[in-house]
Design a protein that fits this description.
89 residues; mainly alpha; 3 helices; 80% helix
Amino acid sequence: MKVLLVSFLFINIVVFVLAGYDKHQARKNKRRIPENTLFLLEGIGGSIGLLLAMLFFKHKTSKTSFIVKFSGIFLIQIVLVYLILTDKI
């Protein structure tokens, strides 16, 4: 269990830093981190890190398609956690 928690902490830190870097690159009109990369990291456990980065850096908060995809992935994760915790999976 400890390894799993450390893994989630690590992935959330990575996605937070990458989203911050992407925002920095966006301000300079330079090469960006692909959205699919951010969604992949969110999907494997980095939802909290990406959410915090969105709020902290004001990153992708006005892009509706990003918000919808982010919310969809986050909702799926909430449902999966619920099903696992209630022993339905």
